[in-house]
Predict the structure.
Amino acid sequence: MSWLFPFPPRLPLGEGFEALNEWLKEHFGGLFDAIGATIDWSVTTLRDFLTEPQAAQLTAIAAAVLVAVLVRARPIPVLVIAGTAVALYVGQAAFALGDTLVNHSPPQLFLWAMHLFGQDGVESNLVIGIVALAALVVVAAVHRIRLPLVAAVAGGWLVTILCGWLLFDAVPGVIGQPTATLVMLLLSALAWAVAGWKLGVFSLVALTVVISIGQWNNAMSTLSLVLVASLIAVIIAIPIGVLAAYSTVVSRVVKPVLDLMQTMPAFVYLIPAIFFFSLGAVPGVVATVIFAMPPGVRLTELGIRQIDKEIVEAGEAFGAPPAKILTGIQLPLALSTIMAGVNQVIMLGLSMVVIAGMVGAGGLGNQVYQGISRNDGALGFEGGIAVVILAIFLDRLTAAVTRRSPQARAEQAAAA
Amino acid sequence: MFEVRGPEGSGTGPTLTPRIPQRHVTGPEEEGTTPKTPCQTRSTEEEAVPAVRANHLYKVFGKRAPQAVELLSDGRHRDEIKELNVTAAVIDVSFEVQPGEIFVVMGLSGSGKSTLIRMLNGLLPPTSGTVEIDGTDITALSRRARRALRGEKISMVFQHFALFPHRTVLENAAYGLEVRGVPRAQRHERAAHALDLVGLGDWKSHLPQQLSGGMQQRVGLARALSADTDIILMDEAFSALDPLIRRDMQTQLIQLQAELGKTIVFITHDLNEAMRLGDRICVLRDGRVIQIGTPEEILNHPADDYVARFTEDVDRSRVLTAASVMEPAPKADSADWDDWERVEPDAPVAELFQRAAACDNPLAVVDEEDRVIGAVSPSTILSALAMPEEQENGVVPAPVRGERREEVRQ
């Protein structure tokens, strides 16, 4: 008992935390390495795509969108195409299966395209994507499923590829940063499609400003970091929020933990994050996930709890199992609240980027941090403005998604 | 369910409780065949299995619920067990609903009727007692089996409609079938048929919030009808509607029930509605059953002052029928019957005013084979319309075997 005196004894809280971290790293080091590698790969891939999009990647995205559009109407052919394409991609990545196939095909198939676009080789991934895309368009055309939408996606893909080709090769010297301009146009088109022409015009102007202050690559680096962190945070937050909505016990346990996560100074997360994941983008992402997650959990719980009890009861009264009530009633009706949470998660994630820049996450945070350390007001301000533009862009975009939720559409229908 | 009651020696317990259903269930047709104690649940195979049967149901919310059930089963009022810190919503409720019957549970707010209806389809587990649906004890089923049974046999209409705002009217109406895994085209066809039945065939692609309250509740009704269950539970289904629309909906419900022959358990706080819809009415007060009987029984033989006070507001001339007010036909001058105007036994008294006043003779109440079974004179009508306490014994012949319930509580 002597250790109790003098009365408030020194409590080794911090030392305990350190010891816990070391124990975790010693026993679960492999797990942390795997997590770190996955996060790093995601951030790098996304950043590379945003700074230098490849035609093959764009084609794959267009094909994926078409699969999502068509899979409900004609599941079997669409899934066969998607499965084959995925298998070919994997085969290409693992043992250059695509290259082998291309080399064994008649060269006339590819020569004209190589001449047209001035290429001296064939990219197998692009070929796989184009074939899948064409097959999907044929399926849609034969069965006459949602033709306008399919035409818009396929046409958009074609326009993008041609734009890229024009920007790079046809009109050299007119556009200073062709890749950045291309991505800027794509992001503006996305904003226009999701949120209307006003946000489209805003994006066009604001993102052009980002290019012209020379922060485009940093901005895309930050954007990829924020998107990956937000995605992880949302994937963790929504199930916890659902559990908390179902169980008062979970809710009571989770609440103080969320309070801690949100109020703990964000710098503190960086210390164990560096300890586990060393310097770079990964500790930045991890710290951002922890800091940004709470509103996702809270608003998911709130969204589900505030649904009229009678509506859930109606599902039960007709014999719906809990999973069907969750996915068919509770999540759709809570979606606008959950999306408000996702919006908050993204905003909090953006607010973390400067801090993450301190640990070498790169991007705009790094610019601002350099501005501070070099007393360079111009650099700091430019980095800051780019963060603001990204914030407005992401906020309006998620808000628009919220407006398109089923519940919101029902409310609009009632008002009309 | 008897093990929850007090030890055998504890005063009135074992003798009082089994008697309650005997005194309460006074429905004309099943009297005598009604099982007197819940122990004999399956012993009466010779009669039709009731669509719904509640056996000494208790629902007590709170940690000390079992103890509370023990005390309440001795006939105590729920206010007497306040110190247990529990809420006794439903206390010792027993009844049977026959197939094709509209059974109305009437009570004011706080009388436990919403809790009761949620125990009937297993949304709430009873603290004690059992619920049988077509002879199956749903309280003994697994959750999965109970869900399946709910989907196949019972649907429900809610007070505030409880439509899914993100689904169209048609998808709402098809929900019960969707849960059961009926293919899309087929369930939409059946849902469309149900919507046609309630007169909403042109609104299929609208969202619920674009519809008025009455129309929304029709969608709720169509959702219950399309599920094609034999039993429909209606929880104050028309209480949130305007009086005129409510009347339309009641008429429509009666028509639909006559067409489709569903078994309906209808909850309401409005005795007029209960009288209009119910084949039989169960009056609840403070969680206990006060009286179960046909509208005429409730009106003419209210079990206690509480029920009597309710009946004051009822338009008696619409509830009472020629058969329920008629006097025995005078036997002597049977030759004169040819001159008497004939009325059907189930004609409401309201329709007899004019005819009784127009002719000198009493009206002859005749059955399907034109046999005179009673007579109705203007004075019969007048005395029948008087409140029961104003009636002298013998003025109104008791048409049914309603019994006055002795007060359990002092």
User: Anything to note?
Assistant: Residues 1-46, 391-410 of chain B have pLDDT under 50 and may be disordered.
